[in-house]
Write a structure and sequence with these properties.
The chain is α+β, with helices and mostly antiparallel strands and 196 residues long. The chain is built from three helices and nine strands. A six-stranded antiparallel beta barrel has the order 4-5-6-9-8-7. The chain has a two-stranded antiparallel ribbon with strand order 1-2. Bound molecules: zinc ion. Zinc ion (ZN) binds next to helix 1.
Length: 196
């Protein structure tokens, strides 16, 4: 680690781990992992995983497990309590990874009408999950805005919250939506590993 210091505020001890481009000493690596893990598990529990790109969570999990493992194997400098915490972090991160797989995203094009108040437009889903979808819209939308989503093929409508937006071109935005009041809007069996 080239004798660099821990970047946890006010620490300055020798850094031994890297997580999300920041260097940490053992103690603050553990503290940061625990904070981030509980934040992620909260998001999983609240079904808000759409707020974070899946790849970001995966990369974080991989890095967390790898760095915790390296630290755990190190001979000296760690007491038993820190070692147990590292093993707990590895198990939790692996469990978080299982949670990601449990709510799979499926590539599917389903025709929708989407709108709010005065505006409405036709679109197709790009990805769907049990609790939402990724769609493209041309009307401006904002995070936390409420949308009405209609499936003309089934005559069903649902309210959804804008959880995440990414502008891909002028007047073109990828929107992660999260259903508020539908248990199984797509009418798919999500208990199978592949719903189709
Ligand atoms: Zn530190």
């Amino acid at each position: 680690m080239d004798g660099k210091s821990c970047e946890y505020r006010g620490c300055g001890q020798l850094a031994t781990s890297v997580l999300a481009n920041r260097r940490y000493c053992g103690e603050h690596f553990i503290a940061t992992c625990r904070t981030e893990l509980s934040r992620y598990f909260q998001i999983v529990q609240e079904k808000r995983l759409w707020e974070i790109p899946r790849e970001t969570v995966r990369k974080w999990i991989d890095e967390c497990v790898r760095e915790a493992d390296v630290l755990d194997r190190r001979e000296s400098g760690l007491d038993d309590s820190l070692r147990r915490q590292l093993q707990d972090i590895i198990l939790s991160a692996v469990e978080l990874g299982r949670n990601l797989r449990r709510s799979p995203r499926v590539v599917a094009q389903i025709h929708l009408r989407v709108g709010a108040g005065e505006w409405g437009e036709e679109t197709n889903t790009k990805l769907i999950s049990r609790f939402g979808a990724l769609i493209t819209v041309h009307h401006p939308v904002a995070v936390n805005e409420m949308l009405t989503i209609v499936r003309p093929d089934r005559g069903r409508a649902v309210h959804a919250r804008v959880a995440w937006i990414h502008e891909t071109a002028p007047q073109t935005t990828d929107v992660g939506i999260e259903f508020l009041d539908a248990e199984n809007f797509w009418e798919l069996d999500w208990t199978k590993s592949t719903p189709f």
